[in-house]
Automatic annotation (TrEMBL), chain A:
Coiled coil: none annotated. Belongs to the binding-protein-dependent transport system permease family. Its main location: membrane. It comes from the Bacteria. The keyword Protein biosynthesis does not apply. It comes from Faunimonas pinastri. This is sn-glycerol-3-phosphate transport system permease protein UgpE. The keyword Membrane applies. PROSITE patterns: ABC_TM1.
UniProtKB/TrEMBL annotation, chain B:
This is Carbohydrate ABC transporter membrane protein 1, CUT1 family. SUPFAM superfamilies: MetI-like. Signal peptide: none annotated. One of its GO terms (cellular component) is plasma membrane. Belongs to the binding-protein-dependent transport system permease family. It is a multi-pass membrane protein. Residues 88-300 form the ABC transmembrane type-1 domain. It is found in: Cell membrane. It comes from the Bacteria. PROSITE patterns: ABC_TM1. Keywords: Cell membrane, Membrane, Transmembrane, Transmembrane helix, Transport. GO terms for biological process: transmembrane transport.
Length: 297, 311
């Protein structure tokens, strides 16, 4: 009995398998280590943060930093935290509103345009598509100076509408590319059958093609949402106040205050990565699909 | 393949035989569906782009009176600007480090993922997570880990007796650039890994079986089977690595700010235009950055166009 067990163990633990286990551990350390370290630091008492050598676990875990950030404690308890909450709340709302609006605007335009680029013949199709996709390589700052003047003229600086439009222009090329490749990967026969039955092109698009392309649409929405959520250089210029300033611009400002609090910065960072974390854990399949289709299948 | 080609040919023929107005209606519908794309991209990308190109030939500087036409002066001045040269050198170093590390690491990660069974899904989620994290947050997390006194990295290096005392990473140009590259690679490597994993999964298993029967070593199999069959996706992955690193802003700004030691080309554009208000000079620089970026990514565009034509 025990002989058989040890035989099985020695079979299981070949050098190749041990090596692979070590590799997996290293990959996990590289990918999750920095996130763990931020979480670890965010749960420490301020005095434990400055221990040398640093603690691998919080010696006295506390949620104080979070409750300060989220305004859950009295002003007397933590003056720094309590004054941060209104800004943190505004920045969180701004991040969510611009990410959702930018994503919706982008995928609606990209779904319709992507279908036209994939299936319909019209003059200038290839040129327009080529030009739009080429802007993937145009750095944002190449257009930002005239864009800034344009937005000032239209009164759209520091407004949700202005940011949403800029994000649409920034992320449409990738979204169009993705949607077009998803449409191209669908079998044409269904659409052709519907047309032979006398269905109009638009009916076919909304009732047959879009439902089939739903995984692609979700993948495109996820990639767009995560791209807007992480934007920094655009709001750095176009969101000067808390009317639209997102978390990505607010959190580094915490770091440049004189009362530098690493626990606070780490806690704010952990809260800012919650939405992406949820997406990666629960919608991973769609995300991978979007990323690989983006590579130009 | 042949079947679908004859199919679509037949459809085209029947379509032509049908209503003469059908092509016109299709073109009208196509145009209408694409119209929002044209409006958004035209107003917010192409119009500003043309403005940038045009205005870069004038002197636009709120600190100086008038906006005279100065031709290529902005461009010729750029080539002798020590700040621009420093930023170009920094950017090229960042691109080199990023492309090499992302490609080697991404391929290694993809091979490891490919060799896994049921747990692949979970390892893949863990690997992708850094890509989804805002680069600003990611930079702040790393700058805390690299804190000279309290950071975990220096504590480990001290424990290994590789450094003594507080090594200040930002005080040393090489170390600071390596740190920025590392933070950028941490975020972008997952994309290469995912692209390469998809490419690996597309290789027919029979090819590996054949190589095994022929007695090829695993290294030989990698060189003769895996690499040639994934060359296309690898080129795409390297192109996007290059373009992303070329346009690096967030990580260098958070970790190095305006420091000339680590200033990237896009930070130089931002400083020139929005901090020093030399508007048209910044525009000229951004046009050059764009041309370089476009040249590199022509692989992307050519592939896209090739696909459109073959269709």
């Amino acid at each position: 009995m025990s002989e058989a067990l040890s035989l099985r163990l020695s079979e299981a633990l070949t050098p190749a398998k041990i090596g692979k286990g070590v590799l997996i551990a290293l990959v996990l350390l590289w990918s999750l280590g920095p996130i763990y370290w931020a979480l670890n630091s965010s749960l420490m008492q301020p005095v434990d943060l400055t221990a040398v050598p640093p603690h691998a676990f919080p010696p006295a875990p506390t949620l104080k930093t979070y409750s300060g950030l989220l305004g859950l404690q009295g002003a007397a308890d933590n003056a720094t935290g309590a004054s941060i909450w209104p800004h943190f709340r505004a920045a969180t709302i701004n991040s969510l509103v611009t990410a959702v609006a930018g994503t919706l605007g982008t995928i609606v335009v990209a779904a319709l345009g992507g279908y036209a680029f994939a299936r319909l013949r019209f003059p200038g199709r290839n040129i327009v598509f080529g030009l739009v996709v080429a802007t993937l390589a145009v750095p944002g700052y190449t257009v930002i100076i005239p864009l800034y003047r344009l937005m000032i003229k239209l009164g759209l600086v520091d407004t949700y509408l202005g940011l949403t439009l800029i994000y649409m222009s920034a992320f449409l090329p990738l979204a169009l590319w993705l949607m077009r490749s998803f449409f191209l990967s669908l079998p044409k026969s269904l659409e052709e059958a519907a047309q032979i039955d006398g269905a109009s092109r638009l009916y076919t698009l909304f009732r047959i093609v879009l439902p089939l392309a739903m995984p692609g649409l979700i993948a495109t929405a996820i990639v767009t949402f995560l791209s807007v959520w992480q934007q920094f250089s655009v709001p750095l210029v176009f969101s000067p106040t808390y009317a639209t300033k997102p978390l990505t611009v607010m959190i580094p400002e915490l770091a440049s205050r004189h009362d530098l609090n690493f626990g606070l910065i780490n806690a704010a960072g952990i809260l800012a990565i919650l939405p992406p974390f949820v997406v990666v854990v629960f919608l991973n399949r769609f995300l991978v699909q979007g990323l690989t289709a983006g590579a130009g299948k | 393949m042949t079947l679908s080609m004859t199919d679509s040919y037949r459809v085209r023929v029947t379509r032509r035989l049908r209503l003469t107005g059908s092509d016109a209606r299709e073109a009208l519908l196509g145009g209408s569906l694409v119209l929002p794309v044209i409006v958004v991209m035209g107003a917010l990308v192409f119009f500003p782009l043309v403005m940038t190109a045009g205005q870069s030939l004038f002197r636009i500087d709120p600190m100086r009176p008038g906006t005279p036409f100065i031709g290529m002066t902005n461009y010729t001045r750029l080539f002798n600007d020590p700040e621009v040269r420093a930023a170009t050198a920094n950017t090229l170093w960042l691109v080199l480090l990023a492309v090499v590390l992302e490609t080697l690491g991404g391929v290694a990660f993809a091979l490891l993922l490919q060799s896994m069974g049921r747990a692949r899904k979970w390892l893949l989620a863990a690997i992708i997570l850094p890509w989804a994290i805002p680069s600003v947050v990611n930079s702040l997390m790393w700058s805390w880990m690299f804190n000279p006194t309290y950071g975990v990295i220096n504590a480990i290096l001290r424990g290994l007796h590789l450094i003594s005392g507080d090594f200040v990473w930002s005080n040393n140009r090489t170390a600071a650039l390596v740190l920025i590259a590392l933070v950028h690679v941490w975020k972008m490597l997952p994309l290469t890994a995912v692209i390469m994993l998809a490419a690996l999964q597309g290789i027919p298993a029979q090819l590996y079986e054949a190589a095994k029967i022929d007695g090829a070593s695993s290294w030989r199999t990698f060189i003769s089977v895996t690499l040639p069959l994934t060359a296309g996706p690898l080129a795409i992955a390297m192109t996007q690595s290059t373009v992303t690193a070329f346009n690096l802003f967030d990580e260098a700004w958070i970790l190095g700010g305006a420091s000339l030691d680590t200033r990237s080309l896009l930070i130089e554009v931002y400083m020139t235009a929005f901090q020093n208000l030399h508007m048209s000079y910044g525009m000229a620089l951004s046009i050059l950055v764009m041309l370089a970026s476009l040249a590199v990514s022509s692989v992307f565009v050519l592939r896209g166009r090739g696909e459109t034509h073959s269709e």
